[in-house]
Amino acid sequence: MAEVNEPRRRFLIGATSFVAGAGLVGVATPFVQSWNPSAKAKAVGAPVRVDISKIEPGAMITVEWQGKPVWIIRRTGENLKNLALEEHREELRDPDSKFNQQPEYAKNTYRSIKEEFFVAVGICTHLGCVPNYEPDGRAEVKHALFFCPCHGSKFDLAGRVFKAVPAPTNLIIPPHQYLDNNVLEIGADEQTS
């Protein structure tokens, strides 16, 4: 019987264990890293900054946040006056936004931080269609509004839903804040950042 070379045996066992361990780490690392959200996924949920300095009164722009359209409208003085009219408030299902769809700082007649700018998720609360912005209104409503072409829901320029339409609730106001007079950040505010 041949004599066992103990030092060589220990070396081979150690070398084999080292290579097996390195292989295990090499296989496990990509697997564990796959649990982290991708850069694209992180970007989808990240806050969005928008320069609002060039938005003309009465104009609307749309940006994407979390895969949803978010409207930013610069309301005119006439828009603001119409939103506060008592006869207009009587046309609305939830004029005081009692159903909680906005942050605390947007619980007011204009559902906004700054009366002039309106920020809302542009998705109808009925079945998820995207309403059209109608700056000149419609025959049955004499001022600007959002009209959903899918089932006829109407929202005023504060995102409040009219009575007798399919949409059950007002439009959702996302968290947002003004970083300065020209930059709006959607997806973050003092409460969430």
Write a concise keyword list for the protein shown above.
single chain; Rieske Iron-sulfur Protein; 2 domains; three-stranded antiparallel sheet; 4 helices; 9 strands
SSE topology:
Blueprint: H1 6-33, H2 39-45, E1 48-51, E2 60-65, E3 68-74, H3 77-84, H4 86-89, E4 117-121, E5 132-134, E6 145-147, E7 154-155, E8 176-178, E9 183-186
Plain-language structure description:
This protein folds into two domains: about 1-35; about 40-185, Rieske [2Fe-2S] iron-sulphur domain (Rieske Iron-sulfur Protein, 3-layer Sandwich), CATH 2.102.10. The chain has a three-stranded antiparallel sheet with strand order 1-9-8, with no helix packed on it. Helices cover about 25% and strands about 20% of the residues. The chain is an alpha+beta fold and about 190 residues long. Strand 8 (about 175-180) and strand 9 (about 185) form a beta hairpin. The model has no long low-confidence stretch (mean pLDDT about 85). The longest helix has 28 residues, at about 5-35. The chain has helices at about 5-35, 40-45, 75-85, 85-90; strands at about 50, 60-65, 70-75, 115-120, 130-135, 145, 155, 175-180, 185. The chain contains four helices and nine strands; from the N terminus they run ααβββααββββββ.
